[in-house]
Write a structure and sequence with these properties.
The chain is α/β, with parallel strands linked by helices and 484 residues long. It is built from 16 helices and eight strands.
């Protein structure tokens, strides 16, 4: 069984449940090139695709699979059945078998939407362990539990965490079924995550050098909302949609006046990000207006026979989005709903109309409408991305002005969001004592961050109150996260 020593440093790449395979592969490849040797995946449709990509890289000698720590979070919820999660894990193991290796650890997500069942978790862990046991009867994978943000944010009642550790974690650790914990560690799970890290520290101290010791991986570090899949980010690839011609170019200027005539004292970076949001809003208004006007043409021509074939809401994105814009708080949330619900219905409806034999006008309308709807999707995504970048920049600037985290900030007068993942990763590793910190949608520079962290050696400088105060200020910068 692996000792789980996390080669190449204490930082790794974490695949998100709300992403595309192409985005994951791009970020992972850049991270591997920067010294990342730890990968944590989750149950998704594209997870096997990520492992196929990893195998191809190893086949081309672009990464060394034998010297990596690779783990998987076996997660089920109302959208992912146990059958789907098991099939995903089976596919992952099949790909790794080609590379003559297996997973180093698998953690099972503790359910947050139902009462925690010790026997159900035990059965899942035994099944996973036994499926990875070699013919000699020796387990080759460490099993454990995944403690998600949704679970921790619900464990805020007095005694709830004590009950979890006493009635679930403790017994499973005694049986050596829980040897690894993946813990959601961010501004929304503190102090619950802090309690778990202290519990693990005490458990390991009492275990001495025995095999009962627990390894911890801090996950969901960049979370920007306690419930939705929003992330703090270093940036987005290809964020700007192709804009219609004829729109005047504008610039943010060096100083802007606030509404009361006072000079805006915010940093140039924040002012520029705010300006970009204003431009994105203008682009979205134009795209929304074009889409709605185009849809009105369809609505005037669509008779009962057309409406019986296709629900109007499926092919009138502009009208629907106009009423629902406010419910989307992040690009990740929008992309998830778009990919899983909106886009499939839209494409299916347009395909039906494209093959509608009774009216050439309807077929011609589909040709015109398709790019208009695509542009609206891109414009809204761009606006949400610009808002996320502004929030991330404000968080980064806050971190660089805070004594307990400034040790990990670059010595720059104008920090950018490019520094945010590394700053938060090092800060999290320092206060939590986690064996590894994983980041999603980021270029993980494991070797450099680990070297900087070991040189500073600041773990003992952080009090619980200091960390709680900083996380509270971060939450204040994320207004959508504070809404009920």
């Amino acid at each position: 069984m692996s000792n789980l020593q996390f080669p190449g440093g204490s930082f790794g790449y974490e695949c998100s449940q709300h992403s595309s395979g192409d985005l994951e592969k791009g970020s992972l490849e850049r991270s591997l090139g920067r010294g990342c040797k730890t990968l944590v995946t989750r149950t998704t449709d594209h997870t096997p695709e990520v492992y196929d990509f990893l195998f191809d890289l190893s086949d081309n000698e672009e990464c060394d699979l034998q010297n990596m720590q690779i783990g998987h979070i076996y997660s089920t919820n109302r959208n992912i059945s146990a059958t789907t999660a098991t099939a995903c894990l089976k596919d992952v193991n099949a790909v790794l078998k080609q590379a003559k290796r297996g997973l180093d650890f698998v953690t099972v997500t503790v359910p947050s939407d139902e009462e925690v069942s010790l026997s159900a978790l035990r059965n899942s862990l035994i099944e996973i362990r036994d499926s990875a046991t070699v013919p000699t009867g020796k387990p080759v994978v460490r099993t454990g539990l995944d403690i998600s943000a949704s679970l921790l944010t619900m464990q805020n009642q007095p005694g709830a965490l004590e009950k979890l550790t006493k009635e679930v974690l403790g017994p499973l650790c005694e049986e050596k079924l829980c040897q690894t914990l993946t813990i959601a560690t961010n501004a929304f799970t503190f102090p619950q995550s802090h309690h778990l890290y202290r519990w693990v520290k005490n458990w390991n101290s009492e275990s001495g050098n025995s095999s009962r010791k627990i390894r911890t991986i801090a996950t969901e570090v960049l979370r920007a909302h306690p419930r939705t899949p929003a992330l703090l980010t270093a940036g987005y690839p290809h964020t700007v949609p192709h804009r219609p011609s004829g729109r005047p170019a504008t610039s943010p200027g060096q100083e802007e006046e606030a509404g009361d005539g006072a000079v805006d004292k915010r940093s140039v970076g924040v002012r520029e990000a705010t300006h970009n949001i204003k431009k994105a809003v203008a682009d979205l208004e134009l795209a929304l207006d074009r889409c709605i006007q185009t849809e009105k043409i369809f609505l005037s021509k669509a008779g009962e026979s057309v409406r019986e074939k296709v629900p109007i809401t499926d092919v009138c994105l502009g009208h629907v989005l106009y009423k629902t814009l406010a419910q989307f708080q992040s690009p990740e949330e929008w992309q998830s709903i778009l990919s899983n619900q909106i886009a499939p219905k839209l494409e299916r409806g347009l395909n039906v109309l494209q093959n509608y034999d009774d009216s050439s006008e309807i077929r011609d309308w589909v040709v015109i409408y398709h790019p208009v709807a695509k542009y609206l999707q891109a414009s809204f995504r761009h606006l949400l991305q610009q808002r996320a970048l502004l929030q991330s920049l404000e968080v980064q600037e806050l971190l660089c002005m805070t004594p307990i985290s400034s040790a990990f900030c670059p010595d720059l007068s104008a920090p950018t969001t490019l520094h945010l993942p590394g700053t938060l990763a090092q800060f999290t590793a320092a206060w939590s004592g986690a064996d590894c910190v994983t980041l999603s949608h980021s270029q993980v520079e494991s070797t450099r961050w680990t070297s900087e962290l070991s040189v500073k050696n600041t773990q003992d400088l952080y009090s619980r109150d200091d960390v709680a105060a900083l996380y509270s200020r971060i939450r204040d910068l994320l207004p959508a996260a504070n809404q009920p």
